[in-house]
Each structure stands twice: as structure tokens, then as C-alpha cells.
Design a protein that fits this description.
With 238 residues, the protein is α/β, with parallel strands linked by helices. It contains six helices and nine strands, in the order βαβαβαβαββββααβ. It has one domain: Rossmann fold (3-Layer(aba) Sandwich).
Length: 238
């Protein structure tokens, strides 16, 4: 299946927090969108790999994704090396997306920066015909998508582009709350973590409101790009 937009995420729930409003927006517009999770989030303080699987499935139903895969990398221990790069290259060549989103290049969680760099390097290598990959016993053709963006996570990074998600904010929050073990849940008896405190999602909302204010809308998500961006018609900009 060819996708229009492919999102890479170090952990299940990274995509929901970072860019699910944009995902929902483009699915509603008829675009084909998928997520590739690197790990099952098995090192998380709260929940288990199995509960994260169940929560991911619940989020998928809300998002209406066309595909979601988990590469089974080791949470906390995957690396930006040849083995892992080839895994990412396989996915890029399998789904041939036009646009790719990845984790932030710099963030509080070390896996996020590693994942961002891993996708960035694999994105380039996927376009080289001498980098050989195969899937299901068949050789894959070289392919490099048009654009690569990074979603903003815990650490605030000045965005290069904003997307209006005002119409999808409530549904974005439903996707996040699908991860019941990870975020604030008054019925949970597990140890509190940085992201399970009541204030964490308030910060997520405050940032979306702040970014939205910058473009004159209620809520927005921000993305960074290492590539200079161009537009054919400046009158299309907000």
C-alpha cells in the first residue's frame, strides 16, 4: 500500500502526543496515513508491553489509520546503526510515502533524539540504489520521500511550520487518553511518572493553544525541518 504520510515513533503514544491532530486532519481529507512504532515501550514505569499493545489498538480505532506496524526494537537500547537503518529503509520503500514525520531531534527522552537521527539518516540512504533491501524475498527499489518533518515533543523547539488542528483537538485528546496506563488516570494505583501527572496534559494543551495563537487559530501542532521549505504561492500562507 502506498501511503501519503508515514509517521515514525520511538514508542507507542509518541505519535499521538506529537502529531495525531495532523494525522486526523489528513485522514479526514482522504489521505492514506500510517504509523511505524520502533518499540513496544516495554521499559515504561507504568503498564506493560501487553497493555501498551492494547492501548495502541484502541488509539488506532480512533485515528482510523490505514496501517500501523511495530518493528520490535529494544526500548532504550536501539541504535542509529546499519541494522536499524535498514529496518527503516525497508519501511520507507515499502510504503513510499510523500511526507514523513519523525521524533524530535532533541528531547528530554534520549530515545526520541536517537529515533529522529535514525529516521533522518535512513531517509537519505533509502534513495540510494546501491543500498540493497528486500521484503518478503523481493528486492526493493530505491525511494526517497519528498519531505521529512520532526514533531515537537517535551522540550520546546521553535517550529518551522504549523498545522491548524482546531477541528481535531478533541479527537486528538481521545487518542492520547487511549493510553490509560501512561497518562493521568485517577483510578490508577501505579507510581506517578513525569507524564502521568495531572499537569502534563495541561502543558500539552497550553502549547497547542500557544502555537495556534501564532497562526490565528485555536489549536496547532508544530514541526521542524532540516530542509529549507518553499511554496509556490505566498498568498497560501497564514
Amino acid at each position: 500500500m502506498k501511503l501519503d504520510l508515514l509517521v515514525f515513533a520511538a514508542h507507542p503514544d509518541d505519535a499521538e502526543l506529537g502529531c495525531s491532530g495532523t494525522i486526523l486532519k489528513y485522514i479526514a481529507a482522504g489521505r492514506k496515513v500510517g504509523i511505524i512504532d520502533f518499540t513496544r515501550g516495554e521499559l515504561g514505569t507504568r503498564g506493560t508491553a501487553e497493555t501498551r499493545d492494547q492501548e495502541t489498538a484502541a488509539s488506532n480505532r480512533i485515528l482510523g489509520l490505514h496501517v500501523r506496524e511495530n518493528l520490535g526494537m529494544r526500548d532504550g537500547f536501539f541504535r542509529n546503526d546499519e541494522e536499524h537503518q535498514l529496518n527503516i529503509i525497508q519501511m520507507l520503500r515499502k510504503y513510499t510515502p510523500e511526507i514523513v514525520f519523525s521524533n524530535a531531534l532533541h528531547d528530554r527522552h534520549p530515545d526520541h533524539g536517537k529515533a529522529g537521527d535514525l529516521v533522518n539518516d535512513s531517509f537519505f540512504l533509502a534513495g540510494l540504489s546501491k543500498v540493497k533491501t528486500e521484503i518478503n524475498g523481493k528486492n526493493q527499489n530505491a525511494y526517497r520521500p519528498r519531505l521529512l518533518f520532526q514533531y515537537i515533543q517535551d522540550r520546546y523547539i521553535e517550529p518551522d511550520i504549523l498545522v491548524d488542528i482546531s477541528d481535531f483537538w478533541d479527537k486528538k485528546m481521545k487518542c492520547i487518553h487511549a493510553f490509560k496506563t501512561q497518562f493521568f488516570n485517577p483510578d490508577s494505583d501505579e507510581n506517578e511518572t513525569y507524564i502521568s501527572s495531572p499537569s502534563f496534559l495541561k502543558v500539552v494543551e497550553a502549547r497547542a493553544r500557544e502555537l495556534g495563537k501564532s497562526m490565528g487559530v485555536e489549536y496547532a501542532e508544530g514541526f521542524t525541518s532540516r530542509k529549507l521549505l518553499g511554496i509556490d504561492n505566498i498568498f497560501d500562507l497564514k
